[in-house]
Amino acid sequence: MTKKEHKEGLKERYRAWQEEKIGIQRLTKEEVEAILKERRAKKEK
Reduced to 3 states, what is the DSSP secondary structure of residue 24? Predict the structure, then answer.
């Protein structure tokens, strides 16, 4: 990976992070636990 490709990748990750940050909602503890369980189940597959 060249330096330019690396910088482009970082820009893309930052944009995605910003979009996600803007859409942040406060979740209850139960909602967070449910999301984590779903993610763990997907990783095990």
Answer: coil
Give the domain extent around 11.
Answer: 3-44
Measured distance CA(23)–CA(21) in Å, rounded: 5
Residue-wise pLDDT for 21-40, tens only, equals 766 667 788 888 998 899 88
Q: How far apart are CA 32 and CA 37, in angstroms?
A: 9
DSSP 10-42: HHHHHHHHHHHHHT-----HHHHHHHHHHHHHH
pTM listed for this prediction: 0.41
Q: Tally the domains of the chain.
A: 1
